[in-house]
Specification:
Length: 330
């Protein structure tokens, strides 16, 4: 009597499916163990960056004119080469550079010289990736069964994606950083209120809040610590607050900055204004949470239909189907 064939699911051996799922699970466990074992302390990197910013501000205030010229001449060589190449192609515009530098600051990247690298990437990536796509599609005929419309769509999509890739990368980093800062802003304002009522100065209050929130909200702690340093070194305190608004792409932070500037200019009570802003931001955060909760049933409909219901059908009807198949074959 011939041995019974192994059970199959949609024409695939169940043992192979189980082996594949076990391999994927093992890989996920190994990745999780590696991520947990190689976790790094983000505080060391932020403290180093803040110390560098403090030294830059100190050098800008007490350094002589000759030393400033020397520091200007000792810039990054790669950035100078990229700047010269862009200038030779007439692609370097002041407005474009300023906008790229602002996006880098909002993404948490402090180096302004990387703005030229971003502009250079917009120029190089379409040439490299687009040229590669043209060679593969039209010269090497990698997709012989494709029609002219599909080939043109692949080349055009590659060119557009290559041109937009640097902007999409920066936009993603800015969005993630802004969301992280938005979550901790109400708590930071509450701590600022406590520090103001305790009699601390504005720069000392920002420094204290940065130390308290550094581990819970590292991005917000980094920005507050940098603002505290600038308040202590810059001659115009208004410029320090405006720098904070420029580094964070949030309307709420601009409102806080406007309040801080108003209190510095007119001497209005800082604690009461910050307390009102904190209450507004907490209500806004609660409303966003309620909105996400209200959208959850609609969002879960598609995963329920695609992933959960087929599994239930297999678990419920699978044994019955196997029994019917065995009875018909016997």
């Amino acid at each position: 009597m011939a041995p019974a064939p192994p059970p199959t699911l949609l024409g695939i051996d169940i043992a192979m499916i189980a082996s594949g799922l076990a391999a994927v699970a093992t890989l996920a466990v190994l990745v999780a163990i590696y991520a947990a074992a190689t976790v790094r302390d983000p505080m060391a990197k932020r403290v180093k960056a803040l110390n560098q910013r403090r030294e830059q501000l100190k050098a800008g205030i007490v350094a002589s004119t000759s030393r400033r010229r020397k520091s200007i001449s000792n810039r990054n060589e790669m950035a100078d080469k990229v700047r010269g190449l862009l200038a030779s192609f007439k692609m370097l515009q002041d407005e474009q550079v300023v906008k790229a530098q602002q996006r880098l600051m909002q993404a948490g990247i402090r180096s302004k010289d990387l703005a030229f690298v971003v502009i250079f990437a917009r120029f190089v990536l379409p040439v490299v990736l687009g040229g590669t796509a043209i060679v593969l599609v039209y010269f090497l005929d990698t997709f012989p069964t494709w029609g002219p419309v599909k080939k043109y769509g692949l080349v055009a999509g590659t060119l557009i994606l290559a041109y937009k890739a640097p902007d999409l990368y920066l936009k993603n980093k800015v969005q993630k950083r802004s969301d992280a800062i938005r979550k901790g802003l109400p708590d930071a304002l509450d701590l600022l209120v406590i520090c103001a009522e305790a009699g601390l100065t504005v720069d000392a209050a920002f420094g204290r809040v940065a130390r308290e929130l550094g581990k819970a909200y590292p991005e917000l702690g980094d920005e507050f610590a940098l603002t505290s340093i600038e308040l202590g070194f810059l001659t115009d305190r208004r410029q320090a607050f405006e720098n904070l608004a420029n580094r964070i792409d949030l309307e709420a932070v601009r409102g806080v900055v406007a309040t801080m500037i108003q209190t510095e200019k007119y001497g209005t009570p800082l604690a009461s204004a910050l307390r009102v802003l904190s209450a507004e931001f907490r209500n806004e955060r609660m409303m966003r949470a309620e909105e996400k909760a209200a959208r959850l049933p609609a969002i879960m409909t598609v995963p329920l239909i695609l992933f959960i219901l087929p599994v239930l059908f297999i678990v419920i009807l699978g044994p019955a189907a196997c029994s019917i198949k065995d009875s018909l074959m016997s």
